[in-house]
Predict the structure.
Amino acid sequence: MPPRAVGAARVALGLIVLLGGINGFVRIVPVPEPLHPFVQLLLDSGYIYAVKAVEIAAAVLLLLDRRRPLALALLWPVVVNIALFHLLLDPRAGINAVILLGLLGALTWHDRRAFAPLFAERRAGSASPAGSPARVERASPA
């Protein structure tokens, strides 16, 4: 992706997520009424405030262009849940979920090298996790 497109996607995703996160605490954008029972449960339990705090933190990281892979990793579970909610329970704002998934997917693809270790198979002789003894099998010199 060209650098300008990456920057535009980063800023767009950051602003959308920041607005959504702030809107969870202070109503800036009106929310369609009546609320879906699932959303009402999230509000009543207070769980939504933790999710909105993660959204705001990730949005700030994106807008400041700091730790972009971390911001993307924080956003994936949130955006997947938003998409599933709109796909399965309340399709009123389904296009928003598609836009979020598109922007998040494009940025993740651009930073795919940062995520490569998550999908790599561990091989014999590779570095072991911290705190566990390394088992390295060595071929005997013949």
